[in-house]
Amino acid sequence: MTGKLLAIILVVSAVLAGVGMYYLQVYGFYYDVTARPGQDVSLLAEGADDPEPISYTAFRAIDADSSPIRYRACFETDLSAEDLAKFRQVENPEPLTAPGWFDCYDAVAIAEALKAGQAKAFMGAKNIHYGVDRIVAVTTDGKGYVWHALNNCGEKAYDGTVVGEECPPRPRD
C-alpha cells in the first residue's frame, strides 16, 4: 500500500509540475501592452539615428518581463510601398513564434510572406534593449507585425563570447 501511495503522489506531482510549467511558458508571463497612440509603431529611416512613428490602426501587442525578445505586435497601416521605401530594410529577418492564443500573429505565415516578397521587414529600433532590435514587417495589403530579435551584439553577449569594441557597453543593472 505504501508503494502505491508513493507512486500516486509522484505521478500527481509530476503532472502538476508539467501543467504549471506549460501555463507559465504559454500564458503566465505574458501581458497585454497598453497602446500608446502614435508611438507604438515606428521605423528607422535610412541614415537616421532615431525611429519615426508611422500611421497605424488596430494595434495589439503582448510582452513579458522574463525576456527582452517576447514582444509581439500586430497592426494595420495605410502606407504604400513608396511611403515605406525610405526606411531601413532588414535582410533575412526571422519572425519569432508567439503563443497560439495571440491569434493575429502567425510567425510561419509572416516568414512565408517575407520569402514570397509579399511583405518587407524594416528596422523599427536598434537596441530597444541591450543587444535586441525591434523588427517591423509590413505586407502588401497593409498588415503589420512586430517582434524583437537579437542583433550581433546580443547574440555574442548572451552566448558568452567576447562582445568586442564594435558593441556599445552593456548597461549596469
Describe this structure in words.
The chain is of the alpha+beta class. 28% of the residues lie in helices and 27% in strands. The protein has two domains: 1-31; 33-159, no CATH class. The strands form two sheets. The chain has a six-stranded antiparallel β-sheet. A two-stranded antiparallel ribbon has the order 2-3. The longest helix has 27 residues, at 2-28.
Low-confidence stretches: none
The domain count comes to: 2
Helix content: 25-40%
* Number of E strands: 8
Arithmetic mean pLDDT: 88
- Could you say which overall geometry the principal axes of the C-alpha atoms support? globular
From the alpha-carbon coordinates, what is the Rg to the nearest angstrom? 20 Å
Query: Helix/strand-derived class?
Result: alpha+beta
Largest sheet, in brief, is:
6 strands, antiparallel
